Amino acid sequence: MVHADPDVSVAAIIEAIHGFTNYRVKYGKAWRAKQHAIAMLWGDWKEAYGRVPKILNAIAHFNPRTKWCIHSIGRQEMHKGSMRPVMKRAYWCFPQCVEAFKHCKPVISVDGTFLTGKYRWALLIATGMDGEDRLILLAFSLVEGENDSWSWFLHLVRRDVVGQDRKVCIISDRHQGIFNAVEDHMEGYHPIVHRWCMRHFAANIWQRQKGKKVIKQLKLLCASKTEKTFAIRLTKLKGMMNEEATEWLEDQMENKSKWALAFDDGCRYGICNTNISEVLNKVLKGVRAMPVSAIVEYTFYKVNSYFMHRWEKANQQIASRPNQDLWGKGAMKLLTKAGKAAAAGMSAELFDPTTFEPILDPSHWPEYNGPEYIPDRSKLKDKVGRRKKKWLRNEMDQFSGYGDDIYGYGDFNQDSSKDVAVMQT
Fold first, then answer.
1. Residue 87: enclosing H or E segment and its boundaries?
2. 348 - beta bridge partners?
3. What is the pLDDT of residue 312?
4. d(CA 413, CA 401)
5. What residues does each domain of the chain span?
6. DSSP secondary structure code for residue 22 in this structure
7. Which of 225, 284, 302, 425 is 20–30 Å from 346 (CA)?
8. How far apart are CA 111 and CA 275, in angstroms?
9. Chain segment 376-391, per-residue pLDDT in tens
10. What is the sign of the dihedral through the CA atoms of 392, 395, 397 and 398?
11. What whole-number distance in Å separates Cα of residue 314 and Cα of residue 311?
């Protein structure tokens, strides 16, 4: 059960055992059984770091052109009688995702999520979006935290995913590490166009003035498509805000192209937030408590299932309209609006995703002759035992739900239900 679904709940394990033994085990026993299964499949929490390069090496063997690398902190520590390098970061992206991004909007959403296991690490994710507003997973990285690791991660994303010939817009929250990373110069590559997630932007106003009407008006301001409408709505918003919120917003006017559609020049393609990355964070919620080797393997199979699901949907759509133009629903809507004259000069291309080759079991893996990594002891969490489930509410949660669905995204959230449903298949 754990191998088929690393995110399987303890309650589901209890019910499965009861189903074929007619005996209901206690929660603690089922929880320990799951931990033993995890250790057998992916190693214990420390050994899992040594398995990461072996799994990535196997994925690259069966799926050529897979890009991956591991960065050490430059220190070695004793483990089981030998000196081993300490892992600092790991990165990987699949060639199928790189090829798919060539057929997507030149927009990448980046986000990070912390891991809930025994070590204080984070998972960084780069996500794209196709013409039908469906997410495309592009690259992953396990890092020691959200700091200068963003520069390292985005450098690899630009090299392996974007390439030298394409200019992209990156949408993110206002993390200082990302601010620094997008300013990095890469010889031979286009500079990054950086835009802010409007939902995170609104959270900064909420910190200074908690008011439903203020947030609603701010949404209208961000969604304004002309400078004239922007000016009118800005005047109205300033009349509603207190002094602290007004002063903060004034400071952001210098960078209004990063958060207002009226000054965006179309770089963000109408994508207003990082919700496409946060959808994936929700899917990965349970696996975040797994060893790092399990996380790597989980991303491989989850991306594989996603591609296959989308390909089946596309085939069904093609079969339902034989001998007709192969346009998606979103493209058809735009073409209908533009008229037949505009549509005559356009062409459609059917993208056939490269098949993912399974990595089988470890007995079929190629020999790995690289270093055996171990985690940084300083990242080990102090507390032991089962983590208490707790929802730490912040300003993002407090203002969520306020205002009209003015983007077609609702409270700064893109309609993610279709993406979540796909990712959980």
1. strand 82-93
2. none
3. 83
4. 9
5. 10-40, 43-197+273-303+329-387
6. S
7. 225
8. 9
9. 988 988 765 555 554 4
10. positive
11. 5
Q: What is the pLDDT of residues 185-205, one digit of tens each?
A: 999 999 999 998 888 888 888
Beta-strand ranges (E) seen in 210-269 are none
pLDDT, tens only, 281-304? 666 666 788 899 989 998 998 888
Reference 128, options 366, 341, 306; nearest CA is 306
Q: Helix 227-238 and helix 243-252: axis angle, to 10°?
A: 160
Supply 280's token pair. Answer: 């994936």
pLDDT at 316: 81
Cα distances (Å, whole numbers) of residue 420 to 1, 135, 396: 22, 10, 20
CA distance 113 to 334: 35
Low-confidence ranges of the chain (pLDDT < 50): 390-392, 399, 401-425
Query: How far is residue 77's CA from residue 85's CA, in Å, rounded to a whole number?
Result: 7
Alpha carbon distances (Å) from 291 to 30, 44, 118, 318, 321:
18, 7, 8, 41, 46
CB 13 within 8 A of CB 30: yes
Q: Quickly tell me which residue has 């205002």 as its tokens.
A: 403
Q: What pLDDT shows up at residue 331?
A: 67
d(CA 143, CA 113): 10
Buried b (16+ CB within 10 A) or exposed e, 333-371: eebeeeeeeeeeeeeeeeeebbebeebeeeeebeebeee
Report yes or no: 55 and 359 within 8 Å, Cβ to Cβ: yes
- Predicted local confidence at residue 404, as pLDDT: 35
What is the maximum alpha-carbon separation in the chain? 74
